[in-house]
Write a structure and sequence with these properties.
With about 280 residues, the protein is of the alpha/beta class. It has two domains: about 55 residues, no CATH class; about 150 residues, von Willebrand factor, type A domain (Rossmann fold, 3-Layer(aba) Sandwich). Helices cover about 30% and strands about 25% of the residues. It has six helices and eleven strands. Strand 5 and strand 6 form a beta hairpin. Helix 2 runs antiparallel to helix 3. It is elongated and about 85 Å long. The two termini are about 30 Å apart. About 5% of the residues have low confidence. InterPro entries: DUF58, vWFA_dom_sf. This is MxaS protein. It comes from Methyloprofundus sedimenti.
Length: about 280
């Protein structure tokens, strides 16, 4: 289910010069008082504060300056490799579509522009919105196309996605299961260092914690197109779960080294999880 949700964008919007809905640090025509300035430094007599001017020890006219609200470019960079079609507790491909629609709707609701880069073996122009814009109809069409697509291969274009982002700071959601080599993720993060990045790690509990203690289990490598049948036993179950726990720590260390905290989505996409994520960062 798609929920209309207004996220709490902060860092990426602070220095954007375009007016919008988010608190910025640039002086402009906002409503939030920032500071007093001498009239000669801010020659706008409409904002003269007579009380502050009378109290000024240098007998200078004082003008009120205000903090401008800023507009933000919001991008979703999505892994479109075969592993993102995994069906377990939920369908990862459906979750990807839900995330696309929800993030775009939230961005447009606040007057922000939304962009999308789908990262498959190549970057398909039909699955690309760059530069970011306010066209919700284009997002809806793209969501339907992804929903009906058969995802194949690896996300070999993953590290090329940064080429489609603006020069100014943007809020970038990075959606993937991140089963790719850590070196690829580090290379991507280095290219995104001027943006505010939110890594969304899409895992499914059936991949690790929901494994049976005993029984025959088939494991499929969707990207390589290979299937392996194993006899599940407690020792193998523990080994797999330990590997997932180590991978989680590895991803956390990788993203934290670039100043961002990953959000693990193990129960599908929920808009309130994203809001809670931003609230925790703000707190």
């Amino acid at each position: 289910m798609i929920e209309n949700n207004i996220f709490y964008y902060r860092k990426a919007a602070q220095y954007n010069v375009f007016p919008g809905a988010h608190a910025g640090k640039i002086v402009g025509n906002g409503l939030l008082f920032k500071q007093h300035k001498p009239l000669i430094a801010a020659p706008d007599p409409r904002h003269i504060d007579l009380r502050a001017s009378m109290l000024n020890p240098f007998a200078q006219y004082q003008v009120k300056s205000f903090q401008q609200q800023s507009r933000l470019d919001v991008f979703l960079l999505a892994d479109l490799s075969a592993s993102m079609s995994y069906q377990g507790q939920y369908n990862k491909q459906h979750v990807l579509v839900d995330c696309l629609l929800s993030v775009a709707k939230s961005a447009h609701a606040t007057g922000d522009r939304f962009g999308f880069v789908g990262c498959g073996q190549l970057i398909d122009p039909q699955l690309l919105i760059s530069p970011a814009n306010l066209q919700q109809g284009r997002v809806t069409e793209m969501a339907k196309q992804i929903q009906q697509s058969v995802l194949t291969g690896q996300a070999e274009s993953f590290t090329q996605a940064a080429d489609y982002l603006p020069d100014s700071s943007a809020l970038v959601f990075l959606l993937s299961d991140f089963y790719m080599p850590i070196n690829n993720i580090q290379q991507q993060m280095q290219r995104l260092n001027k943006h505010t990045v939110v890594p969304l790690v899409l895992w499914d509990q059936h991949e690790s914690s929901a494994l049976p203690r005993w029984g025959v289990v088939k494991f499929s490598d969707l990207e390589q197109g290979k299937t392996r049948t194993l006899w599940m036993r407690p020792s193998l179950q523990k080994k797999i779960q330990t590997a997932f726990a180590q991978r989680k720590q590895q991803l956390q260390h990788c993203f934290r080294s670039f100043g961002c905290e990953p959000l693990f989505l193990k129960q599908g996409y929920r808009a309130e999880s994203i809001s809670q994520y931003f609230l925790q960062l703000a707190g």
